[in-house]
Amino acid sequence: MSNVKHAIKLNYDTEWEYAPAPESTDHISLKDRYDLFIGGEFVAPKSGVYFDTINPANEKILASVAQAGAADVDRAVKAARGAYENVWSKMKPAERGKFIYRIARIIQERAREFAVIESMDGGKPIRESRDVDVPLAAAHFFYYAGWADKLDYAFPHKTPKPLGVAGQIIPWNFPLLMAAWKIAPALACGNTVVLKPAETTPLTAMKLAEVIQAADLPPGVVNIITGDGSTGASIVDHDGIDKIAFTGSTDVGKIIQRAVAGGDKKYTLELGGKAANIIFDDAPIDQAVEGVVNAIFFNQGHVCCAGSRLLVQESVAEEVVTKLKERMQTLIVGDPMDKNTDIGAINSAAQLERINAYLELGQKEGAAMYQAGGKTPKKGYWCRPTLFTDVSQSHRVVREEIFGPVLAIQTFRTLDEAVTKANNTQYGLSGGVWTDKGAKIFKVGQKIRAGVIWANTFNKFDPTSPFGGYKESGVGREGGLHGLSAYLNLH
Amino acid sequence: MTQTAPRTETIAPAPDHVVSVDQVGIEERVARLGSRSIKKSSKVQALKLILSQIDLTTLEGQDTPGKVRQLCHKAMSLHDTLPDIPHVAAVCVYPMMVAEAKKALGDSGIHIASVATAFPSGMATTQAKLDEIKLAVAEGADEIDMVISRGKFLQGEYQAVFDEIVLCKEACGDAHLKVILETGELGTLDRVRHASDLAMHAGADFIKTSTGKIQPAATLPVTLVMLQAIRDYYYETGRMVGMKPAGGISKAKLAIQYLVTLRETLGEAWMTPEWFRFGASSLANDVLMQLQKQQTGVYQSGDYFSKD
Predict the structure, then answer these.
(1) Residue B215 falls inside a structural domain
(2) A64 three-class SS
(3) Are strands A41-43 and A36-38 parallel, antiparallel or unpaired?
(4) Alpha-carbon distance A91 to A190, whole Å?
(5) Distance of CA A124 to the CA centre of its chain
(6) A57 in Cβ contact with A377 (< 8 Å)
(7) For position B144, which CATH number holds?
(8) I need a surface site. Which of A62, A191, A358, B57 has the fewest CB within 10 A?
């Protein structure tokens, strides 16, 4: 074991620097204005209102998008209902599968364009949108396309039937990927869809609408309407909707639960998290440190299953924190379009304000704050990777979801103490265990009350794997077989 | 893992704690480092740094004094038509060729590295190995590249491996000792880490991946594990140890990935020929070709670069 006996600092401010390596944006086409995608065509909103979506890395306006009002939502739901009754529910399942495969293939063909637009609109590094968001989105369509004509085998001795029209409301952290998570299983099961992307990241959803047009889906099977929270509320409240699928904050999740209480609408909710990574003293420390970096700094920490807490066994705590701080110095914060960027822009001014409020609060609470990552650009919304040490379970930066690149570190002595601390949260979406002992992985994994536990890795996603939360992290599962059942009546 | 019981001739105890390495994690980190995009001025700077870190090597049974002289000339003047090109760090030869290399290199500042200790197999008595080191040093070698006894290491005789390195270090005198782990024969990254720790604690000035005679030779995962071992040893003792990946690095693009790995693991202090070397024979020409291309925009035929 390496003991940090010498107060030595490694210097990562090297004479040899990486030159800028920006991804080209010449190959994309963006319209100045996007209308609503209803019934297979782009239509102006009845409200007549449009709002701008900006690039959070430079605050420049990318396009304006329509604000769907209650009348527009009604129109979209009616289009979806018509398509459900007349076409989609009657189509042979194998034919439905073909359409979904087609969407998957077109996304793959346009992967580069999708990646660039995702990074421009949302601020995430091009490395992530290129290597994670877009390939995973295509993978979800491919995966669920395969299930379309095999539902009877997915649920033996049951008669799976679609629910009808699904209203789907998605967040701004993985705009295209969340659209794929929602649309792919819904279509495979024979439902039609009204989807609303987040206000700050509507563009890849509108590009997806173009893909759906190009794939020749019957009009009305997928409707994509843009707008703010009021549009979402209109979807939730609409009588013509059979199922609500929502990913977003726990606060809004609670509002949705109240709204649908007592009615017939089915719902799945994918909400917040405050996951703990637990590093035991027998863990491969360097790889654990790397895993913690991926857990909290991936996508600027805008990840509901982010490992935003670190619990480290006391005998290796000093080593882990030292190495973590050094590793953070090599993280490159800046232009999301640069292929070398590790941490891009914070998604919006509002989110940056929220994160900064927590940074202030943490210090006010008496926590020690450490930041790395060098200078940030003048324009745009930026937050350097941040650690809080000297914190306890009662600190608000330990209890509350910050949704930014901010990690709170605590130590523990025994396995039971680690488990108690990990579970002492209102959330339960994910968790991480780092140890060289297989038996310990199972022992701890069984005790952590969370939907996903990663062992010696973190933030691994696959369409075959169910994902969802315990406690206030949500209701229901997405992905895998579980994700199908959320869009079916199984009687 | 336990070490074998200390024996009477033990010089100092080998480190007893074996640090575990997660292979999947290492490979992911290597992939991430490999995605760094190095362009333009940054690339030119890297290429020149690589040239200055090369141990230009010839280790063939058919080596001749003439070939060694030719190699030494190349070491001193890599490609005179390109401006501002550094010379390589060292030439690496067999002990029998050290005197010839010394004569050819003169006071150029280029070091002479000599393999020793029954390279590449290490199948000889400790005394024979020490005698060979002393011969090479007496002939003028500045650096000795020894091989560890892989047989003993794999049998679990860690203390014996450790003791032998200690004796070799003593035999080197003022010459620097590079310890070749021959990672292609060790089988796991855990063993690479263990052997690295043994070598450094026994006094190695450099740790080196491979002889180049065994496949796989240097790889990025193995190099990352060794760099992490160097960092931990530095934290623990305050002593810097150098790193030399050797064998199989023949393209500039791959060499740049090694530099990226070095930069983001150990940082600025190691980014010099004093602390990082490439053991390679054909790498230099590919780097030169890339430098020429950065200047002219086109690749030249390999025939424009001397093959030595």
Answers:
(1) yes
(2) strand
(3) antiparallel
(4) 8
(5) 12
(6) yes
(7) 3.20.20.70
(8) A62
- Compute φ and ψ for A223, nearest 5 degrees: -120, 130
Query: Which of the residues A16, A325, A330 would you substitute to probe the B interface, choosing the one with the greatest number of B C-beta atoms within 10 Å?
Result: A16
Q: Which residues pair with B278 in a beta bridge?
A: B54
CA distance B257 to A23: 20
Rounded to an integer, the average pLDDT of B9-32 is 86
Where do the domains of chain A lie?
33-271+470-490, 276-455
Please report, for residues A25, A336, A482, B46, the alpha-carbon distance to residue A112 in angstroms, rounded to integers and kept in the order given: 10, 14, 31, 29
> Residue B95 falls within a domain, yes or no?
no
**What is the count of structural domains for chain B?**
1
Return the pLDDT at B4: 44
Contact across the interface for B259 and A6, Cβ inside 8 Å: no
Nearest residue in chain B measured CA to CA from A127: B35
Is there a domain that residue B7 lies in?
Answer: no
Give per-residue pLDDT as tens, B123-164: 999 999 999 999 999 999 999 999 999 999 999 999 999 999
Give the residue carrying structure tokens 């999708």. Answer: A114
Compute chain B's Rg from CA coordinates: 19
SS3 of residue A27 by DSSP: coil
B234 min Cα distance to partner chain A (Å): 8
pLDDT score for A5: 64
- Residue A281 Cα, gap to closest chain B Cα (Å): 11
- At residue A132, the pLDDT reads 98
DSSP-derived letter for residue A298 is G
pLDDT recorded at residue A8:
72
Is pLDDT of A7 > 80?
A: no
Contact yes or no for A305/A339 (Cβ under 8 A) = no
- Fold observed for domain A33-271+470-490: Aldehyde Dehydrogenase; Chain A, domain 1 (3.40.605)
Please state, in angstroms and rounded to a whole number, the distance separating the CA atoms of residues A197 and A177: 11
The C-alpha atoms of residue B33 and residue A405 are separated, in whole angstroms, by 21
State ipTM. Answer: 0.94
Q: How far apart are the CA of A282 and the nearest CA of chain B, in angstroms?
A: 8
Under a CB-based contact definition with an 8 Å cutoff, are residues A141 and A104 in contact?
Answer: yes
Write the residue in B35, B36, B266 that is nearest to A10 by C-beta: B266
Residues of the domain holding B283: 23-32+114-294
Is A12 close to B233, i.e. CB distance below 8 A? no
Tens digits of per-residue pLDDT, A177-214? Answer: 999 999 999 999 999 999 999 999 999 999 999 999 99
- A33-89 pLDDT, tens digit per residue, is 999 999 999 999 998 999 999 999 999 999 999 999 999 999 999 999 999 999 999
pLDDT digits 0-9 by tens, B226-245: 999 999 999 999 999 999 99
What CA–CA distance (Å, rounded) separates A63 from A34? 7
Question: Phi then psi for B70, rounded to 5 degrees?
Answer: -60, -45
Q: Is residue B207 part of a domain?
A: yes
pLDDT value at residue B10: 57
Integer angstrom CA distances of residue A103 from A109, A140, A352: 10, 10, 34
Sequence-separated contacts (24+) of A417-420 with Cβ below 8 Å: A418/A278, A418/A280, A418/A311, A418/A313, A418/A444, A419/A278, A419/A444, A419/A447, A419/A448
CB A284 to CB B263 under 8 A?
no
Distance between CA atoms of residues A56 and A346, nearest Å: 7
Fold of domain A276-455: Aldehyde Dehydrogenase; Chain A, domain 2 (3.40.309)
**For residues A276-284, average pLDDT:** 97
